[in-house]
Amino acid sequence: MNIVLLGSGNVATHLGRALKDGGHHIVQVWSRSEANAKILADKLDTEATLQPSSINPHADVYIIAVKDDVIRAVAELLSPIIHDQLVVHTSGSSDLTILEGISSKIGVFYPIQTFSKEKKIDFKKIPIATEGNSSDTLGILSALASGLSEKVIEMNSTQRTILHIAAIFACNFTNHLYYIADKILQDQHLDFDLLRPLIMETAEKVQKKHPAEMQTGPAIREDQAVLDKHLELLKGNPSVLMLYQNFSQRIIHSKK
Amino acid sequence: MNIVLLGSGNVATHLGRALKDGGHHIVQVWSRSEANAKILADKLDTEATLQPSSINPHADVYIIAVKDDVIRAVAELLSPIIHDQLVVHTSGSSDLTILEGISSKIGVFYPIQTFSKEKKIDFKKIPIATEGNSSDTLGILSALASGLSEKVIEMNSTQRTILHIAAIFACNFTNHLYYIADKILQDQHLDFDLLRPLIMETAEKVQKKHPAEMQTGPAIREDQAVLDKHLELLKGNPSVLMLYQNFSQRIIHSKK
Which of A52, A213, B124, B256 could make an SS bond with A77 (beta carbons 3.0 to 4.6 A apart)? Predict the structure, then answer.
């Protein structure tokens, strides 16, 4: 397929590379950021453009991979240029309806992963959630997704938003717990390396099992002596203390 | 070294195996649980005992790998039997002083990892925190630890407890976030498999960098429209809603 990629951030970069590796032709990268557009276009052996008016009007699919709050604005730039081809966005939290009126063929192509610019990733293992405004559109998108990933799942906008919320707990909030752990260690001049193997193992343990079966620690054992000792030590840090108490209560409650 | 292992849970199992693989001789496994003691003794090609009175009095080291609330009781069983050999426990949250009076050589040998019975693990990558009541004791323990792991760090009881608290955030509380994510998906009849690659990647991303550099999601972007939409959708689940708000605030605050 001939694809125009709109955006040059982490999702655009990884998705563009996966599409190219999958045999598709990225005919153009459009982005408001000249530097990023050129970097990505170079990676994908294609041309970059900054001018909305010079967006290629003959592609099969237009993929909008930009922040949620500018998806609609970018889609409206496309609207007068294209000839009713397929337009999709890649967001977990924007509804399909955000593309309404842009084309008669609109859809969503949401890779359920966190991307960093430097780190390569195997797209085959990334689940992709697809949605389309017709069974034809959905069929095209799911076929495109199946070429990139072993796990493609069709879902509506509400399901996708809820999946995105679950992803925020499993990824964004988890990273914030790592951040708190790092701060606690830094206060004692201890290295974060001490926790890195534990962090990997905690993630690996739920790859085959459900987290309910994998819970360990003083809270699930209801070891009150250890919990009290920790709360005592955290007295100087009320914000961390509150979180410790909250999680311990939640974990104890999860047994009932 | 000739070692008696007291306990037959996950720590005793993994540590016993690593010590045996490291060329040490596990002369005996003692446990209150007959079945578990036999299973572990078989794995370690050694004998099991249930009777405190039949604990081998001639070992070089006695390693107590039991729950925090019974460490002292097990140590007191040892006390009349041994001849002042080295006695250590493996707990992150118990002080060295819990072994006071048991022997003149006491210490701590704390592997910073979460163990599951079925899952094998590379002990070389597990940091081990050691403590001893004298430089001689500490020297012996750190040498023993260095034979098993590439990363051995000597620290006192307070530092170890704080390290353990950090580990609880990075492991136990993280697993509880996975649990909440799983529940959110289950309510929508969505499979936890959708999040497994994301969970692995989130852990992998902090293996080289610090979590402060790796934070993603609507909170760090202060994308209020997405945050509001998620809070609206979580209205039916006040406990999860509160946690979502709390974490989002914390993440926004972490930027300042």
Answer: A52
CA distance A114 to A92: 11
Size of interface A-B (CB pairs under 8 A): 310
SS3 assignment, position A91: coil
pLDDT of A117 > 80? The answer is no
Query: Contact at 8 Å (CB) between A15 and A63?
Result: yes
Place of tokens 């017709």: A134
Inter-chain CB proximity B93 and A226 less than 8 Å: yes
Residues 6+ apart with CB under 8 A from A215: A251, A254, B172, B175, B176, B179
Whole-angstrom distance, CA of residue B168 vs CA of residue A247: 10
Chain B residues near residue A206 by CB distance under 8 angstroms = 175, 178, 192, 196, 199
pLDDT per residue over A199-222, tens digit each?
999 999 999 999 999 999 999 999
What DSSP letter does each residue of B155-173 carry, written as one string? --HHHHHHHHHHHIIIIII
Kindly state whether B235 is in contact with chain A, defined as any CB-CB distance less than 8 angstroms.
no
Contacts of A195 (CB under 8 A, 6+ apart): A178, A181, A182, A185, B112, B166, B167, B170
